[in-house]
Amino acid sequence: MAKVTLEDGYVPTDDEPFMNERQREYFRRKLLGWKNDILREAQDTLVALQSENENHPDLADRASSETDRAIELRARDRQRKLTGKIDAALARLEDGSYGYCEETGEPISLKRLDARPIATLSLEAQERHERRERVYRDD
């Protein structure tokens, strides 16, 4: 695959062919940057948790510290799941299915992909999905 260069400040627009080389490279860089940020934050959390081996004599301080630790670990678990979705989006970029709705096959809007690069459904399909979820959840 030829190396695609992107000028500084490039943002995909509807004026160009959907999912052309430049757009795919833009989203690939965006996804990889996001994943690297998550991995860096996870490493920082690990270092912080290892160094925070304090023995709090006060029961309230210990409880507060344990609560903070549990919240941080839950957040990291959500981030870990997110990296799986990022990897799946990168795989879709490779196989050419990135940017197309899994339900309808129609292109997902560039604005939606820019805001949520791991999106697999168009806005309309996502709304239908959420309405169905609400109906079944209320039963």
Automatic annotation (TrEMBL):
A zinc finger (dksA C4-type) spans 101-125. GO terms for biological process: regulation of gene expression. It is found in: Cytoplasm. Residues 23-93 form the DnaK suppressor protein DksA N-terminal domain. The keyword Lipoprotein does not apply. It comes from the Bacteria. Keywords: Cytoplasm, Metal-binding, Zinc, Zinc-finger. PROSITE patterns: ZF_DKSA_1, ZF_DKSA_2. Its main location: cytoplasm. One of its GO terms (molecular function) is zinc ion binding. Residues 96-131 form the Zinc finger DksA/TraR C4-type domain. GO terms for cellular component: cytoplasm. The keyword Cytoplasm applies. Pfam families: DksA_N, zf-dskA_traR. HAMAP family: DksA. Interacts directly with the RNA polymerase. Transcription factor that acts by binding directly to the RNA polymerase (RNAP). Required for negative regulation of rRNA expression and positive regulation of several amino acid biosynthesis promoters. Belongs to the DksA family. This is RNA polymerase-binding transcription factor DksA. It comes from Methylobacterium oxalidis. The lineage of its organism: Bacteria, Pseudomonadati, Pseudomonadota, Alphaproteobacteria, Hyphomicrobiales. The gene is dksA.
